[in-house]
Amino acid sequence: MLLHIGIDDTDSPNGMCTTYLGAILYLELSRIAEPIDLPRLIRLNPNIPYKTRGNGAVAMTFEVDEEVIPEIKDTVLFYVDRLSDFEHENTNPGVVFFEGDIPEELREFSLRALREHVTIEEAERVAKKVEAEYFKFKLGRGIIGSLAAIGYPLERFTYELLAYREPDSWGTPRRVEGESVFAADRWSYPFTYDNVDPYKRSVLITPHGKDPVLVGIRGIDRGKVIQTFERVKFGEPVAFYQLYKTNQNTDDHLTPKKIGELKLYDSAVVRGRVAGPYWERGRHVFFELEDETGRIRVAAFEPTKKFRNWVRKLLPGDEIIAAGGIKEHDGVLTLNLEKFYPVKLVPRVEYQKPKCPKCGGTMKSKGDYLKCKRCGHKMPKKLIPVEVPRELERKIYEVPPDARKHLSRPLVLPGGEERILEVAKNHLIT
């Protein structure tokens, strides 16, 4: 018999980590039942405001004999009760158990939890309908992620190796030798990726919070991921590590939509025209995008750094495809830009002084007339329109690694352009 286990919302900004709890449980339960594949780390809707960090839930599946099921359930509930950070108001754990093959209704719920906003009540209705057993701690919001992680159709996946710290190191600076990370990245890239930011010369595999994670290494080749980890040098002991199968960096959160269909907390790809010049506020860059169904504000926020320079090159009338999450900023529905693709660019015209009609020399402004610097010819002052090349190309522009969402697929990976180019081909604006 197959027994599926889902766990979510056990962590908080002050510490703990659902993957840490999942790794301990995977090890403990593997002693009494046969695991089916690696445990799964499923990232859900990145736009939900009450998420804790990456909004990730953990699921695992075992082949079990019926007589050990009570022991497995008791073990899971014991560890969730013992290790969850119940002191934080936003920590509301949930645990789900499901026996047998995954029904289609559960798969559909999982994708809604990835791309939209779902409620605890909706999760409870689905759980009862498919006869899943669930346990709520405090508000029990974690049953949403737990149920979704069990039902998630992991058709596209990557790997993440998470190494954990000894408990007496939690909350202290992580001791990882930076140069060894750069050397490991040079050896394994692009089979592993986002280990470093080469432009800022910063290490990206170490989190910054009080949680138990020492490093996280992502990749598309499980062997390369483990070997990359083995090449990194640490200044503190590693307690243990766990390799997860995950939907990170798949772009599966992005759904093609018209602008008028967008709702708060959606993740979407839209095609539209730039409706006016960009503006800036507090180092954030904004512009408006419109199609035949409506208009929405688009933002490239300060943490996206040089990505904003490409956004500044857009002109009113440009047709682009934009991908990102829908949130509110200053009370206005805003698409937080992750990637964009220029489909059609309007001509860029600049007004310049003409060349001297007599000798071809450079004309210089002299009050209300122009005078040639070479031959001295004078003529009335006028500027002529000249079309100049656009600096944007027909390619996808993406945010830098340290501003990338967990789910966003880097362009270096196979399929990194798939979602946007699909929209470019099939979703025209009128």
Structure overview:
The protein is an alpha+beta fold and 430 residues long. The protein folds into four domains: 2-151, Alpha-Beta Plaits (2-Layer Sandwich); 158-246, Alpha-Beta Complex (Glycinamide Ribonucleotide Synthetase, Chain A, domain 4), CATH 3.90.600.20; 255-345 and 390-426, OB fold (Dihydrolipoamide Acetyltransferase, E2P), CATH 2.40.50; 352-385. Helix content is 22%, strand content 32%. The protein is built from nine helices and 25 strands. The strands form five sheets. Strands 1, 2, 3, 4, 5, 6, 7, 8, 11 and 12 form a ten-stranded mixed sheet that branches. The mean pLDDT is 93. Residues 5-137 form the TiaS-like TCKD domain. It is found in: Cytoplasm. Residues 140-253 form the TiaS FLD domain.
Structural class, please?
alpha+beta
Number of domains: 4
Q: What percentage of the residues does DSSP assign to strands (E)?
A: 25-35%
What is the CATH domain class of the largest domain? Alpha Beta
* Bulk shape: elongated
Query: Total number of helical segments?
Result: 9
Helix content, binned percent? 10-25%
Give the topology, please.
Layout: E1 2-8, H1 18-29, E2 34-35, E3 40-43, E4 56-63, H2 69-83, E5 94-99, H3 104-115, H4 120-130, E6 133-136, H5 142-151, E7 158-165, H6 178-188, E8 192-193, E9 196-197, E10 202-203, E11 213-219, H7 222-231, E12 238-246, E13 255-256, E14 267-274, E15 279-281, E16 284-291, E17 294-300, H8 307-312, E18 319-329, E19 332-344, E20 348-352, E21 363-366, E22 369-372, E23 378-380, E24 384-388, E25 397-398, H9 418-426
